[in-house]
C-alpha cells in the first residue's frame, strides 16, 4: 500500500529496530483488530505511539512514520479500527466501541512490548485523529496526542451552518461501502441524513462521536494535544478546532496550513520531509521522551499563509488579528447589479436574488480544489463579471491602498427576506485583481428549515479561518448565491431572497 521510506530521526542517530511484525488483537466482544508493531532493540522500556488508521485505510498507512519513530527510540503500534479491511466487527465511526478498543489496544501494548505505560501517545490522520482525541478523554494512559486533519465537532462537520455536506459525506459513505462493513445503525443514520429527517437523531449520533463532548475528561487527564489542519479542509472545516483548542487545559499547540483534508501532512506518510510530521515528532520528543527541544516554549498558534510569506506564530488565537474592520453592504446599482462593499452599513435599499440557477462562484471540489491550492498556490477562482447578478448578490470593495493582512475568521451579517419556508445561501469572499479575476479566500453556507416565508431574517455566517494577504490595488468582493456542489441546499426552483440593509462583513485584520 505505502512504500517503506525511512525518515531520519532528528538530533540523534537511527537506532536498530525489530522490524515490523503483524499481530492480531482480540477485544472482549471477540472482534479481532489487525495491527503491526515495531520497536527499538535497545534495552529497557520505551516511549510509545499508537496510530489508529484513517477512514478507509489500514494499519499499513503509517509504516514510514512508524519506522522513523522506532529508529528514534519509540515502540510504535498501528492498527486498523473495527469494520475496516481485515479487522472484524462493524464500523463504529469513532463511537463507544472504537474508544473501548483503544483501551484494549493499550492493554496489549503494555503487556506485549517494551512500551512504557507512563509514556504513551496517540496520533492519526482524519479518523485516527478523531479516535485519538476522544480516547484521550477516556484513558488516562494517553499522555500526548497529535491529531492531524481531525475534528472536534462532528455535528458541525455534517451540518455546519445547518447545511448538509454533499460531496464530503458521499466520499466517506462510498469508501465505507467499498472497503468496510457498515452497521445497521450507520446505514440508518446515513439514510436519515440524506433524507433530511430525524435530524435530532443524526446530530446525537454525531455528538457522541465528537471530542468536544468529552472535553471535561480530556482536561481532567491533561494530555499534551497538538492539532494540525488545513484552512480548506472540506470535511472538517477549521473553525471547530479553534474553539476546542481554546478550551483545552493542558499543553497544546494549533497549526493551520494551506490545503484540504489530509493534504498538509500527506507527503509525510511516504516518508518525505513534511512540516506537520516534523511538529509531531518534536511534540512527542518533548512530551513523551522528555527532550528539551523548545516546542513547549514557542508561541503555540502557528499559521502558514495561503498567500506565502514567513511562518507566523502567536501566543493564542486572539492575537492572530489586531482589529476587526466592518465593511457595509451598500445599495446594489440597478445597471451593474453590483453594490459597494465598504463604509458604514446603510439602510433603505433592497435587492432581489433568484436561486433558479447556480453561478460561477463556487467552493470547488472536495479534496481536489483546495488540495491543488496547497501544491500550486492557485485557489478556486471566478471571474466576477461572469457572476449572474440575477442569481447572486455581489458587492465589490475599493482598491486596497496597502496590503490587507486577513487573519482569522470573517463573519457575514446578512439581512434578507426569503420567499420560501426553507432555503440556503452561500457566502464567498474573493480577492479580485484589476482584470476581475477573483481568488477565493474563504466561503461558507447557512440554511433555514420550516421558517415563516416572506419574513425578514438575519444570518451571521462565520467563514472558515484563513491567513491571506490582499495586495495593494486588489479589491475584496462578497458574493452570495444559493447553490454550491459541495452542499445539499434547501432552495426550491422558484425561491428567492430580498437582501437589504443593515448587512455587513466583519473582517479580522492584523
TrEMBL record:
Kindly give the InterPro entries that the UniProt entry links to this protein.
AB_hydrolase_fold, FrsA_esterase, Galactose-bd-like_sf, Xaa-Pro-like_dom, Xaa-Pro_dipept_C
Signal peptide from the UniProt entry: none
GO MF, one term, reads:
dipeptidyl-peptidase activity
Listed PANTHER family: DIENELACTONE HYDROLASE DOMAIN-CONTAINING PROTEIN-RELATED, POLYKETIDE TRANSFERASE AF380
Supply the name of the protein.
Answer: Xaa-Pro dipeptidyl-peptidase C-terminal domain-containing protein
Q: Which organism is it from?
A: Catellatospora coxensis
Q: Which UniProt keywords apply?
A: Hydrolase
Question: Family, per the entry?
Answer: Belongs to the AB hydrolase superfamily.
Q: Which residues cross the membrane?
A: none
Q: Name one Pfam family in it.
A: PepX_C
Q: Could you tell me which residue ranges the Xaa-Pro dipeptidyl-peptidase C-terminal domain spans?
A: 281-505
Amino acid at each position: 500500500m505505502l512504500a517503506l521510506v525511512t525518515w531520519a530521526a532528528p538530533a540523534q542517530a537511527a537506532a536498530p529496530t525489530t522490524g515490523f511484525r503483524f499481530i492480531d488483537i482480540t477485544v472482549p466482544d471477540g472482534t479481532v483488530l489487525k495491527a503491526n508493531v515495531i520497536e527499538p532493540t535497545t534495552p529497557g522500556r520505551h516511549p510509545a505511539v499508537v496510530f489508529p488508521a484513517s477512514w478507509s485505510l489500514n494499519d499499513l498507512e503509517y509504516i514510514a512514520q512508524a519506522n522513523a519513530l522506532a529508529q528514534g527510540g519509540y515502540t510504535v503500534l498501528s492498527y486498523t479500527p473495527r469494520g475496516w479491511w481485515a479487522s472484524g466487527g462493524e464500523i463504529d465511526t469513532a463511537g463507544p466501541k472504537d474508544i473501548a478498543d483503544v483501551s484494549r489496544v493499550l492493554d496489549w501494548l503494555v503487556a506485549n512490548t517494551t512500551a512504557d505505560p507512563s509514556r504513551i501517545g496517540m496520533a492519526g490522520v482524519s479518523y485516527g485523529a478523531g479516535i485519538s482525541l476522544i480516547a484521550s478523554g477516556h484513558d488516562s494512559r494517553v499522555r500526548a496526542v497529535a491529531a492531524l486533519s481531525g475534528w472536534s465537532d462532528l455535528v458541525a462537520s455534517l451540518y455546519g451552518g445547518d447545511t448538509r455536506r454533499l460531496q464530503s459525506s458521499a466520499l466517506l459513505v462510498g469508501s465505507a461501502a467499498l472497503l468496510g462493513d457498515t452497521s445497521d445503525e450507520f446505514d440508518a443514520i446515513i439514510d436519515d441524513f440524506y433524507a433530511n429527517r430525524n435530524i435530532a437523531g443524526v446530530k446525537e449520533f454525531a455528538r457522541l462521536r465528537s471530542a468536544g463532548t468529552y472535553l471535561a475528561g480530556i482536561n481532567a487527564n491533561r494530555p499534551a494535544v497538538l492539532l494540525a489542519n488545513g484552512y480548506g479542509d472540506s470535511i472538517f472545516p477549521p473553525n471547530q478546532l479553534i474553539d476546542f483548542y481554546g478550551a483545552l487545559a493542558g499543553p497544546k499547540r494549533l497549526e493551520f496550513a494551506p490545503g484540504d483534508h489530509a493534504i498538509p501532512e500527506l507527503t509525510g506518510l511516504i516518508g518525505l520531509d513534511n512540516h506537520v510530521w516534523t511538529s509531531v515528532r518534536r511534540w512527542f520528543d518533548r512530551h513523551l521522551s522528555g527532550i528539551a527541544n523548545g516546542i513547549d516554549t514557542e508561541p503555540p498558534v502557528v499559521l502558514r499563509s495561503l498567500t506565502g510569506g514567513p511562518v507566523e506564530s502567536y501566543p493564542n488565537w486572539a492575537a492572530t488579528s489586531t482589529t476587526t474592520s466592518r465593511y457595509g453592504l451598500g445599495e446594489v446599482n440597478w445597471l451593474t447589479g453590483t453594490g459597494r462593499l465598504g463604509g458604514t452599513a446603510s439602510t433603505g435599499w433592497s435587492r432581489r436574488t433568484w436561486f433558479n440557477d447556480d453561478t460561477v462562484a463556487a467552493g470547488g471540489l472536495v479534496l481536489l480544489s483546495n488540495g491543488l491550492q496547497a501544491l500550486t498556490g492557485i485557489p478556486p477562482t471566478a471571474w466576477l463579471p461572469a457572476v449572474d447578478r440575477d442569481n447572486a448578490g455581489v458587492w465589490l470593495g475599493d482598491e486596497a491602498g496597502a496590503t490587507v493582512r486577513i487573519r482569522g475568521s470573517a463573519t457575514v451579517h446578512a439581512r434578507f427576506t426569503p420567499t420560501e419556508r426553507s432555503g440556503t445561501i452561500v457566502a464567498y469572499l474573493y480577492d479580485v485583481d484589476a482584470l476581475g479575476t477573483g481568488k477565493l479566500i474563504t466561503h461558507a453556507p447557512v440554511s433555514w428549515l420550516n421558517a415563516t416565508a416572506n419574513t425578514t431574517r438575519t444570518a451571521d455566517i462565520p467563514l472558515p479561518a484563513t491567513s491571506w494577504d490582499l495586495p495593494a490595488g486588489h479589491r475584496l468582493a462578497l458574493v452570495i448565491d444559493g447553490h454550491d456542489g459541495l452542499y445539499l441546499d434547501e432552495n426550491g426552483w422558484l425561491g428567492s431572497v430580498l437582501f437589504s440593509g443593515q448587512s455587513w462583513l466583519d473582517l479580522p485584520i492584523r
